[in-house]
Amino acid sequence: MILPSGNIVTRSMPIYPSSHFTWGEATKNCTRHLQDLVINDRLIATAKQIEKNIVMTAMAMDEYREILGNRPIRVTSWYRPAHINARVGGSKYSRHQYGDAVDWKSDYLSPRQIKKILEANHHGGGYKAYYGFTHTDWRGERARW
Ligand SMILES: [Zn+2]
């Protein structure tokens, strides 16, 4: 797929050179093209900004991957364009639309272990333990719900 920056990526390509996370994981196997986020006729984030958000989020996720014991993390949902977010019942201002939210799970750590680590480390964004997966986002301020 072609990114807003003009870079061409494949689903197996790391989001940045040494990342453990791929463009395929961020964009559902390159089926979700990055697009401007418009809510109530207002431009909230450009596609280019969303691309940057995804790169920044991959860096943060790589840090957590390391803190969580350097074991594989399974991404279940990352970027969602607004129409897909609406279809899956996401909230109107869901950070998945900005590219800076990831739902993921670990086969190696219990939800309790993940919670302990994230509560100690995740200050600049949202964190929520759902049944069966963890939501983490980088909205720029602490959020729990
Ligand atoms: Zn989520």
How would you briefly describe this protein structure?
With 145 residues, this protein is an alpha+beta fold. The chain has a domain at 57-144: Muramoyl-pentapeptide Carboxypeptidase, domain 2 (2-Layer Sandwich).
Question: Can you characterise this structure?
Answer:
The structure is a single chain. This protein has helices at residues 23-26, 47-67, 82-87, 111-121; strands at 37-39, 42-45, 74-77, 101-105, 126-130, 133-137, 143-144. With 145 residues, it is α+β, with helices and mostly antiparallel strands. The protein has a domain at 57-144: 2-Layer Sandwich (Muramoyl-pentapeptide Carboxypeptidase, domain 2). The strands form two sheets. The protein has a five-stranded mixed β-sheet, covered by helices on one side. The protein has a two-stranded antiparallel ribbon with strand order 1-2. The longest helix is centred in the middle third of the chain and has 21 residues, at 47-67. The radius of gyration is 15 Å and the shape is globular. It starts with 22 loop residues before the first helix and ends with a strand. Bound molecules: zinc ion. Residues 96, 101, 103, 135 line the site of zinc ion (ZN).
Produce the secondary structure layout.
Layout: H1 23-26, E1 37-39, E2 42-45, H2 47-67, E3 74-77, H3 82-87, E4 101-105, H4 111-121, E5 126-130, E6 133-137, E7 143-144
Parallel strand pairs: 5-7
Antiparallel strand pairs: 1-2, 3-4, 4-6, 5-6
The chain binds zinc ion.
Zinc ion (ZN) binds at residues 96, 101, 103, 135.
